[in-house]
Amino acid sequence: MPTHVIENDPADERGTLLAFLDAQRGGLRRSVLGLTEEQAALKPSASTLSLGGLLKHAIGAERSWLAMARGTAPEISHEEAMKQFESGFVLTDDESLAGLLATWEELAVETERFIRALPTLERTFPLPAAPWFPKDASVSMRWLLLHLIEELARHAGHADVIRESLDGRTAFELVAEERGD
Question: Which Pfam family is one of those matched by this entry (predicted)?
C-alpha cells in the first residue's frame, strides 16, 4: 500500500484521486497494525478517540458518502444523524478490527468500481438537508473524492498521534513493518 502517490498518467485524474484516497486509507489501516482489540479501544489522550473508533468512523463516512452519490441514502432527521455520528466512533461488542478491515476492503472496491463507472467526475448529486450544508447544495463526484481524501487524511493524522501515544510506534515504523523491512 503506497504512502506517497506517484502520478503515473497525468491524464488519469480519476486514477490519481483514487490512489490518494487509498493512500489515506492505508494510513488508518497501518495505525492498527499488530494491535489487540483492547489496545485499539484505548483512548490514550485528552481526546475521546480510539483507533478502532476512528477506523469505524472512516468506514461509515465512506459508506454514507457513496450512498449519497448513488442517491440511495435514506433521509434522516438531524437528531438521528447526530446519534449516528456519535455512535460511529464506538465499537460494539460484535465488531472487531479484522471485521472492520475486511468491510473496508470490500467498500474500497465498491467505491472504486462506482467512480470508475462514472462517465465524468463533473456529475453532481444533491447534499441532504442538514444545518452544516448550504440549502439546496449539490457537489460533483470530484468534490466527493477530494472530500473523502480530506476526511481520511484528517483521521490518519489523529491515528498517528493515538498510535504513538499507545506504544511509541510512529507511522514510519509501521510503514516499514508493513513492507517487511
Answer: MST
pTM above threshold 0.70 = yes
Q: What is the CATH number of the domain that holds 165?
A: 1.20.120.450
Q: Is residue 2 situated within a structural domain? A: no
Pick from 109, 84, 91: nearest CA to 35: 91
Q: What is the pLDDT of residues 3-45, one digit of tens each?
A: 667 666 777 899 999 999 999 999 999 999 999 999 999 999 8
Q: Which structural domain range is residue 82 located in?
A: 13-179
Residue 175's nearest CA partner among 23, 71, 64, 61 is 23
Among the listed residues 32, 28, 30, 24, the one whose alpha carbon sits nearest the alpha carbon of residue 4:
24
Q: Residue 131 is which amino acid?
A: P
- Provide the β-strand partners of residue 139: 125
Number of domains in the chain: 1
SS3 content of the chain, % helix, strand, coil (to 5): 60, 5, 35
Q: Is residue 170 part of a domain?
A: yes
Dihedral sign, CA of 89, 94, 97, 98? negative
Cell of 151: 476526511
